[in-house]
Write a structure and sequence with these properties.
Layout lengths: L1 H5 L2 H28 L19 H63 L17 H50 L5 H32 L6 E4 H11 L1 H6 L3 E5 L5 E4 L1 H17 L6 E7 L25 E7 L6 H5 L9 H5 L8 H11 L3 E6 L5 E7 L16
Parallel strand pairs: 2-4
Antiparallel strand pairs: 1-3, 4-5, 5-7, 6-7
Length: 411
């Protein structure tokens, strides 16, 4: 038994199934023995020698022998029938026992599969850490653990590179901006110099926004949010709308805001503010002239079917769960859902108008998706049948009266 426990998986299967069928064979032999233990030595019915008349006693003996032969034949048929029944029964029992034993042997593989499914990009620090004998199962688990370690290191290196590169690039940009200021500040600068400086400043502003987006995206993807506090999505939405009143008026947009519910959630105020700003900016920048924006915050059941997207890690929009939601709808042309689903990836844009936009870096909705995921929520981008887009960010709810932890959600 010790060798059975410490052997390889193939050896375990071989030995276990061999033992099962061996026990089945022993049981079958024992059953046949029990059925045949009462048999007597078969005798062939006697015949009178040629020319010798049959006497009454001899005829009677032959009749008895014939009857005995018939009994033996009937017993043989019964033994054959019993053996067939025994084979069928033992085959069924062997299959049942084999399945039970195979399930017991393969149970570690099922545990490894379930644990691997629970591990995602947000918790690559988890390991399977399977204990047991050094067999194929443990070798597989150790290989998966090694793969997770390499993936974790790769993700961390990527995030560090984005953050470090963004920081390092700010230094030459600051130098370029200072040089422009010096050139323009000279007495009576040339008109071409002033015009060139203006164009360069515009491009520098775009690069600054792009670098800031990289920093926010790296921080959100890293998932480290030490400053978690209760935050009102309604207050953030109101502040973002007030700050963008000029842009809204410039495109003659109609805004319908339903911010009756404060929709409290728990997280980083800076990142959540950026989330709300990006969603509203997306609705303004990629809206048509004279269009409309409908914005609402929700914190209870009956919020409809919002939040069933695949950009987040939670089920914030499933059913009628009382999750905090920010819902922003816009009108416009009819969009393709497959293309919209890709907007949560960096530098993905929709249509030629978005590709050529001077105000879009292609990071807005990818930053939103990363922030929502870092806070344990879900993001849904859904095209409207009448045209336009509906964006729903569903976040775990929080009780503002409890600064030490959320109410009904996960921190």
């Amino acid at each position: 038994m010790a060798r059975l426990r410490n052997g390889t998986v193939g050896r375990r299967f071989t030995m276990l199934y061999a033992m099962v069928f061996l026990l089945s064979g022993i049981g079958l032999i024992a059953l046949i023995y029990l059925l045949s233990r009462s048999d007597m030595i078969r005798s062939v019915p006697g015949q009178a020698p040629p020319g010798e008349p049959a006497t009454g006693v001899a005829q009677h003996v032959r009749d008895l022998e014939r009857q005995l032969a018939e009994v033996h034949a009937q017993q043989s048929r019964q033994l054959l029938f019993g053996s067939l029944i025994a084979i069928v029964v033992m085959a069924a029992v062997s299959l049942l026992l084999g399945r039970i034993l195979a399930g017991h042997v393969l149970r570690p593989l099922r545990l490894i599969t379930a644990a691997t499914r629970r591990i995602s990009a947000d918790n690559l620090d988890q390991r399977l850490a399977v204990a047991g004998p050094a067999d194929e199962v443990k070798e597989l688990a150790d290989t998966v653990d090694g793969l997770l370690a390499r993936l974790e290191a790769s993700f961390a290196a990527q995030r560090r590179f984005v953050a470090n590169a963004s920081h390092e690039l700010r230094t030459p940009l600051t130098t370029i901006r200072a040089s422009l200021d010096v050139a323009v500040a000279k007495p009576q600068p040339a008109a071409q110099t002033v015009a060139l400086a203006g164009r360069v400043r515009t491009e520098l502003d775009r690069v600054d926004r792009l670098l800031e987006g990289f920093l926010v995206l790296a921080r959100a993807q890293h998932g480290v949010l030490p400053d978690r506090v209760p935050v009102s999505l309604a207050e953030l939405a109101g502040e973002a709308l007030a700050a963008r009143a000029g842009a809204i008026a410039g495109k003659n947009l109609t805004v319908e805001a339903e911010l009756a519910s404060k929709a409290w959630t728990r997280g980083s105020p800076a990142l959540l503010s950026r989330l709300v700003q990006n969603v509203i900016d997306n609705a303004i920048v990629h809206n048509q002239e004279g269009g409309w924006i409908r914005l609402a915050t929700q914190d209870g059941a009956g919020a409809g079917d919002a939040g069933t997207g695949d950009a987040g890690s939670g089920d914030g929009g499933s059913g009628d769960a009382p999750w905090a939601r920010l819902v922003v709808e816009t009108g416009g042309n009819v969009l393709d859902q497959d293309q919209v689903d890709r907007l949560t990836q960096p530098f993905e844009r929709l249509g030629t108008d978005r590709t050529g936009s001077q105000e879009s870096s292609g990071l807005g909705l990818s930053i939103v998706a990363a922030i929502v995921s870092a806070h344990g929520g879900s993001l849904d981008l859904r095209v409207r049948a009448e045209g336009g887009l509906k964006v729903t960010a569903a976040m775990p709810p929080a009780d503002p009266s409890r600064p030490d932890g959320p109410h009904g959600g996960t921190a």
